[in-house]
Amino acid sequence: MASQKNDILQGTLVLLILRTLASNRRLHGYGITTHIQRVSADLLRVEEGSLYPALHRMEQHGWLRSEWGVTEKNREARFYSLTPQGRKQLAHEEESWARLTAGVARVLRHA
Amino acid sequence: MAWLRRLWTTIRPRRMQRDIEREVSFHLAERADQLRAEGLSEEDARREARRKFGNVIVQAERTRDVNVALSFDAFLRDARYAIRSLARTPGFTITVLVTLALGIGANTAVFSAVDAVLLQPLPFPEGDRLVRVRQIRERSAESNVAPVRLEDWQRLNAAFDAITGYYMEDVSETSGEMPERVRRAWVARRFREVWGVDPAIGRVFTAAEYTVGGPLAVLVSERYWRIRLGADPNVLARSIRIGAVSIPIIGVMPASFHFPDPEVDLWFPSPVDFKFAQSRKLTWFFGIGRLKRGVTLDQARANLDAVQKELGRQYPETDGQLRVDIVPLKDTTVGSIRNSLWLLFAGVSVLLLITCTNVAGLLLARGTHRHQEISVRLALGASNVAVVAQMLVETLILSIAGAALGLILAAGAVAALRLAAADLPRINEIAFQWRILAYTLVTAVVVSLLCGVVPAIRAARASTASALNEAGRTQASGRSSLQWLFVGAQVALSVMLLAAAGLLVRSLHELSRVDLGFDPTHVLTFRVSGSYAETGDYTRLLGRVDGTIDELRALPGVESVATTTFLPGVPMEFEQTFALVEARTDADRRLAAESRIVSAEYFGTMKMSLVEGEICRRQPFGAPTQLLVNQAFRARYLSEWPSPIGLHLARDSFMAGTGTITGIVANARDQGIDRSPAPIVYTCFSAPNPTPAFLVRTRGEPEDLAHTVRMKLKELEPLRSVYDIAPLEDRIGGAFAQNRLRTVVLAFFAVTALVLASVGLYGTLSYVVSLRRREAGLRLALGAVRATLVRQFLVQAWRVVVLAIAAGLALSFLFARLLGGMLYGVSPADPVVLLTVMVTVLVVATAAALIPATRAALVEPMQVLREG
């Protein structure tokens, strides 16, 4: 599994979902996968198997809220949006991501 | 608010499920749309979408899992999964089940005894309010009450609903072909109020029946009614015969009414105006009272104390020195079995702890084997909590199944206990009811938490770690150190139990070796029924008993015959206060000593040796009383007299009067073979009561003479029955049955503990060896000697075992506190016992360790290296 390049590292999925919902006020699960895939220019692909558990866990933490709605194709879908708490969490996750990448970059450069 | 939502999803799992399904089907539809747009056919697009998503149902379940880890639904799913996975490893499952069944079963069995004997109230209405009421005199063991004083207490107290009294005797019922011994209780007024039990048939005694010369009346037990009267519905029209008197039956008590002891079959009213009931000195009633609702023991004590103080002012001579004591009836009923039961409960709880540790060790090992499975589950998105919960559910299922098996074991154990300990108080009240079931269930849950938590967390954590770094191998050593800790704990606890059991065994052994000072072998004992009415004419009573002694003496095979109040060697205290008439100071005057009233033949029959003076001689009633004292009495009280022969001792209670010391006998353990000889005064009188115990020294086996004795007595006195006939050694042994029983049971627990600990040690070392097979093979290939390898593994085991033994010895000093008063002739730090235990444990542990250690050395190097 570790060899598949477009798999999303555990933990970063939450960050990606939070970021996606921060820029798109309201999205369903499928929308989130296509958004991440599109914005990352197909570099990242969200495993459906991890997406929904992650969404539900995040909803439980109070970072997301969900409601049922209808898409333009007239299908019933569950739409997720960010709560103020989720916004705070996003800031937090972004910060630790920045720290991590900076750290890794330094190691790659100097080690 | 999150918890509220979780609660909601837990309550409404179905709606939750529907939501997830809807969400997933939306996702699949969108994905299929996209795939179709990319050119796939309708069919292929749907299949591909589904494939990408994985199993829809699994997805739904896993998604929900996050929300409702605690829901019953998840529990059921975990349970199904657990059962499947347990069925795949039958060896592990059976080992754990047997271990748990043993631990929980033994625990349940002992608890059911503790519950019935110690925790449950006595089987009377509000039995907790029943107390024994005693009168206490300084330096005296007498606690019975004079009936007239009891009436005063009843009249003056404010703490009791009622106080009553009783005494018991064995008589012959003579309406049948052969006289039969029945035990009867004379009960004082307010019998009904105190016990709170009505006759099942008929009525209780009337006031007139409680007077001398009033109408005769008797209540019979349900057993007597059933067996002797054929459950006659017309029982109230019938009567029984005691001696030559016919007494009408007025009622039948219910089957559950076992009072004062389960052998009592008849209840008679004890007349208030009876001559002997008027004396303030004659104390022959056992006092019993029912506390008023809400009155505590202390309040009742204070109240009755005040009453007695008042009586002391009124009757300074007889009541001035008296105090009162109140003890819950349950305590006096249960007696010394209390400590034994708590000891066994402590022992069996330690055993349960060992069981838990053992199972925890097994679970740890299993966790390692399931490493792969757990890693996969974690990688698939299951949370740590879910994994831990799943493993705990598995342990819970094991525990409950183990407990169910344990219940069966316990039922068997209780049945065995009832057989082995039929004489113990309340033993028949042991029953399996919902309380026991509830206890077992709670035990199972506690056990599964105790056994399961650490292994479950370990397994989940280790797998998380290794999922990231793939360095599972380094985890193994860390986990095996926890396993060693568990093994060490088991060994230490086993050492503790073995030491305790060893001390008890040694005590029994010491007891059997002690020099008794009398010879209990070849002695037949029995009693002959009699009535207290006979004490109205002591000349006749004495004549009867002495006559019986002579007649039996003349039988072939009989060496000598004697009577005594209490069987020698059977623990019994009967302390009286004597006054030395010749004392020069008041301080010397009052002497407390054990009192034994025996016939003149007693000393010869029991082969006790005379040290000084001479043995008393048989005399008619009314002759001056002759006394013998033992060496302990002489040493304690008469050391300053060159020869105590001819000194006089007086007493004012039972057998009042003054007697002359005619001789001194060597110390003997009359008052119990486990007690070192106390000062004893022997009063020579063969019939202090109508039913003294007979002692017949026989040439052959005492049992062989039992029939001859019975026939002879039938010929002599056809209206009397012979009962309690048994060899003296059996009677003494019977008195220590409880000691033996608790020793055997504790020893059983200890051995079981050692076996479990050995299994734990074996399992752990096997595991360690299996981890290091490669290493062993490599070293062998590089030229290591096999013996060195074996030694290395053995040393690893020994290090743990030796530390554990040391810890166990320290623990055993703590545990020995529970043995207080149960040890005889050994100290809690008895070197023989402790050394034996240490060596035993070391040998057994080595044997258990040797097998896996040898296995390591037998590794074929090439094979292992090829495997790698």
Keywords:
heterodimer, A: 111 residues, alpha+beta, 3-stranded antiparallel beta sheet, 4 helices, 3 strands, 14% strand, globular, B: 868 residues, 10-stranded mixed beta sheet, 27 helices, 21 strands, elongated
Describe this structure in words.
The complex is a heterodimer of chains A (111) and B (868). Chain A is of the alpha+beta class. In chain A, 58% of the residues lie in helices and 14% in strands. Chain A is built from 4 helices and 3 strands; from the N terminus they run H-E-H-H-E-E-H. Chain A has a 3-stranded antiparallel sheet with strand order 1-3-2. In chain A, a hairpin with a 5-residue loop joins strand 2 and strand 3. In chain A, helix 1 packs across helix 4. The N terminus of chain A is likely disordered. With 868 residues, chain B is an alpha+beta fold. Chain B is 54% helix and 15% strand. In chain B, the strands form 3 sheets. In chain B, strands 1, 2, 3, 4, 5, 6, 7, 8, 9 and 10 form a 10-stranded mixed sheet that branches. Chain B has a 6-stranded mixed barrel with strand order 13-14-19-16-18-17. A 4-stranded antiparallel sheet of chain B has the order 12-20-11-21. Chain B is elongated. About 1% of the residues of chain B have low confidence. Chains A and B meet through helix 2, helix 3 and strand 3 of A and helix 1, helix 2 and helix 4 of B.
